[in-house]
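Appendix B: complex inputs.
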Amino acid sequence: MYGGHFACHCYKMSSEPVPATWFHQERNPGSAARSACTTAPFTGAVVASAPAAPGRGRRCYSVSYHWGVVIKRSVSLADDVAKAVEAAAREDGVSFSSWLTTAAERQLRVRKGLRGVAAWEAEAGTLTAEEIAAGEALLARLLSGVSGMASRVRRR
Amino acid sequence: MPGAREGIVYGPAALRAAARGDRIVWAMHRAALANGIIPVVPAAAVADAYRTEARVERLEELLAGSEVEDLGDESARRAGELAARADTTDLIAVTVAEAACRHNAAVVAARQNALRSAAGLLGHDLVLYAV
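Resulting structure:
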């Protein structure tokens, strides 16, 4: 399904009511990726496509009902990544777009969180290499199922 | 020994510890984020931390990298029922235990009987870092 180098996907975030006139014009109508717009399952959404004028690709019209705002981007994904995302989305029972959105949201949250840590460090002092290692070791212990107790509280 | 856990849930004590500058909590939070783990905080725990902690800017810095879980209708009913079964009025501990069970997560919180008994009722072996 994503045989070309360029995979083009409708990527929608909307909630009702949304105008049904939003559309996405694919850039490379000749590629196998075209079907991504027309066949990707999208929970709560109606996705339809129609041929455009010859040589101008297809238009993908979409109406969806569970996201707040519709923003559409054409994204390029390496073929293997697109295939892996598609498989993961199918496994998770969500659409390709929804899966990518969730992944992006998580990445943004991590980024924001690390900025929060940096803001705290700016006030309280940078974590030392020893403290960072201790934090990593604590996390590893907890994730491996070992409980613990704060032995001493180091505050600043 | 309990099995592996996939995430972290913070109780109010974890938020308070961070607000008061507990460096190991901050280092663990940093490690979690660096490993792509976003700690979960039940909304009730956030409310309690804001009730008891004046350094809200530090709470906000920690919560920037956390997922605050709303207490919706369904989860509120579950929490109430679980609290009744655990014979506790500590709804915050119950929501923390319920979140830990649902996310298969370890907990950073104060040592509380309510937490352990609620987790036990859910059949969840509590993994706790007591702060």
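The beta strands of chain B are 7-10, 40-42, 67-69, 105-109, 128-130.
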